[in-house]
Structure formats: structure tokens, C-alpha cells
Amino acid sequence: MTEGAKRAPIEPLWEVFVRSRRGLSHVHVGSLHAPDATMALRNARDVYTRRQEGVSIWVVPATDITASSPDEKDEFFDPAADKVYRHPTFYQVPEGVEHL
């Protein structure tokens, strides 16, 4: 880059979620850069649903996502381990009961 040349500003990063024709839930399919939500939605349509795989698209600014750290999974999820009542493995299932 020559002296005095300016770099183009980096556009915000958007996370893209698509609900497929067969799916019930939106699934994260990737990320892209776009200046605003409208352009992110259009770009996501062009990039991630080129073969008409989707019926709905969500775009979310990556800066608005808060996530747990995989490095802290033991401490973060530890409180759930002592609640055995959340997993009904010790109940007798009556004969003939389906979809339990």
C-alpha cells in the first residue's frame, strides 16, 4: 500500500441463520460482512440459499451475540449435573406408552 492510500473501512460482521424447507429451526450457516441489515439479508440470500434451500433467513450482528466459552464448559455447566430429576432415567415407563 502506498503512503497516503486509505484502506476501505471493514463492514460489520453478520451471522446468518437459515430455516430450510424441511427444517423447523433456523440453523447457523455462516457469516458475512455487510454495511447494514438489509444488505446482509440480501447477501445471505445470494450466498446461502442459491439453490432455494431456505424459506426464512435471519441475520444478526456478530457483536450482539454473547456466547459461553468452550474453555469454561465444566464450570459453566456444572450446576446442571446435580439435578438428576431433570433426566427421568429412574422412572418406570408404563407398557404401551409411546412418545415419552
Characterise the protein shown here.
This protein has 100 residues and is an alpha+beta fold. The chain has one domain: Phenylacetic acid degradation B (Ubiquitin-like (UB roll), Roll), CATH 3.10.20. The protein is built from two helices and three strands. It has helices spanning 37-48, 73-81; strands spanning 13-20, 27-33, 54-61. A three-stranded antiparallel sheet has the order 2-1-3, with helices on one face. The longest helix has 12 residues, at 37-48. The mean pLDDT is 85.
Summarize the structure.
The protein is an alpha+beta fold and 100 residues long.
For this structure, what is the CATH homologous superfamily? Phenylacetic acid degradation B
CATH class value: Alpha Beta
CATH-defined architecture: Roll
CATH topology: Ubiquitin-like (UB roll)
**What global shape is seen?**
elongated
**Termini separation (Å)?**
64 Å
- DSSP E strands, number: 3
Percentage of residues in helical conformation:
10-25%
Show the helix and strand layout.
Layout: E1 13-20, E2 27-33, H1 37-48, E3 54-61, H2 73-81
Antiparallel strand pairs: 1-2, 1-3
Structure keywords:
three-stranded antiparallel β-sheet, 100 residues, 23% strand, alpha+beta, Ubiquitin-like (UB roll), 2 helices
